[in-house]
Amino acid sequence: MAMLKGRRVVLGVTGSIAAYKSALIVRELVKAGADVRVVMTPGAREFITPLTLGTLSGHPVHSELTDDRKAGMWTDHVELGLWGDVVLVAPATAHTLAGMVEGRGDSLLLTVLLSAKCPVVVAPAMDRDMFTHPATTANLDTLRQRGVHVIDPDEGELASGLEGKGRLAEPERIRVELTAWFRTQSPLLGRRALVTAGPPHEPLDAVRFLGNRSTGRQGVAIAEELARRGMVVDLIAGPLSIEVEDHPGIHRVDVQTALEMDTAAQQALAQNAPDVIIGTAAVADVRPAHPIEGKAAKSDLPHAVDLVANPDILAGLNAAAPESCLKIGFALAHDDGTEAALRKLTAKQCDLIVLNSLADKGAGFGHKTNQVRFVHGPDRIDSFDLKSKEAVATDLADVIQSRLLQSNGPS
Ligand SMILES: Cc1cc2nc3c(=O)[nH]c(=O)nc-3n(C[C@H](O)[C@H](O)[C@H](O)COP(=O)(O)O)c2cc1C
């Protein structure tokens, strides 16, 4: 059940007599914690009303490419396709399956399917002879080859009065198969990560602090990507300037200072034995030695501030973690930075340093993009182009995934 919690499901409903069962499918998915948006073909509306599915899903139902009631408005099929973690077409008619194979765009649902970047699952429903027709068999084969997962129909009595295969799988089986399928799509299921992100704030007094320009975007993108791959992520976050996806796999602990971050991270390490530690937080090296209590008046502000060193959080975590744990650090350079990254690799006992440099336009703090090098050692440095921080997170997650699956075998 937990696999579906927080998953975004676009449910496509088509013009089959079994469309009435889509109400139960919505209920099963919503009960399991999924966020469901329904797209109906015009044919489906002959069998069940948008009001029913809208009420059960808690969201307006989309059906037409353009909205006649609002002149000049159209339904954003691209947005819907990109929103979903999966598009589930249930029931899927022979007509819509053929449209998917041909890449037709003559219903909103078909255009959503053409735009979708996420995986697609179909649950066919039709009369026995339609299901066993060579055209339908060939269409389902083609869809399978393209990576579409097919939930086979049941055998039994059909609406036509015939007996045979073609009955839409029961809503409960659809939910169970979808859950199992999500599991196979989550290669890092059950593995744990510890990610530090953001800039700790070191108080000068109750309102003033020493900090830096880090937003936490890169660390958050990594936490989100790992959670999407099935990991449970302890995200120890300094004050962030961005939102974090509300994903059940992300356990967020908010902290203010480096000392608090250190304590929270060490606690998560001891309690949860992560498979990988990723230190992305831009931890201040120093903090004011004697923060002033309350808000200091302007006239009481000191002319000089004594500073003391903060703990090296990542080095401390890596020293305490077992050898089997993968240890990844981030380094921000203002020049080439390779030499410093190699030194950090050894000094902090890291397996990998992700190096970004202020010398590269669009890289580092404050940007939505980053340009990184993965420094594995003097003989292996992988350079990447400038890309979004989400894409950098995907590259790093690929490395983490292959290292974890290599060292421990698949979970
Ligand atoms: C009463 C009735 C029941 C139907 N049941 C099915 C069905 O179970 N499976 C199917 O593939 N087509 C069925 N059809 C035919 C589809 O509604 C028709 O092919 C339609 O064009 C499908 O369009 P859509 O895929 O865009 O919803 C049925 C038609 C009627 C009138």
Describe this structure in words.
A hairpin with a 5-residue loop joins β8 (154-157) and β9. The mean pLDDT is 91. The chain contains 13 helices and 23 strands. α1 (22-31) packs parallel to α2 (50-57), α4 (94-102) packs across α7 (134-145) and α9 (217-228) packs across α13. The chain has an 8-stranded mixed β-sheet, with helices on both faces. The radius of gyration is 26 Å and the shape is elongated. Helices cover 34% and strands 24% of the residues. The protein has 2 domains: 2-184, Rossmann fold (3-Layer(aba) Sandwich), CATH 3.40.50; 192-406, CoaB-like (Rossmann fold, 3-Layer(aba) Sandwich). By secondary structure, the protein is α/β, with parallel strands linked by helices. The longest helix is centred in the C-terminal third of the chain and has 20 residues, at 389-408. Flavin mononucleotide (FMN) binds at residues 14-18, 41, 43-44, 93-96, 107, 125-126, 130. Flavin mononucleotide (FMN) is lined by residues 14-18, 41, 43-44, 93-96, 107, 125-126, 130.
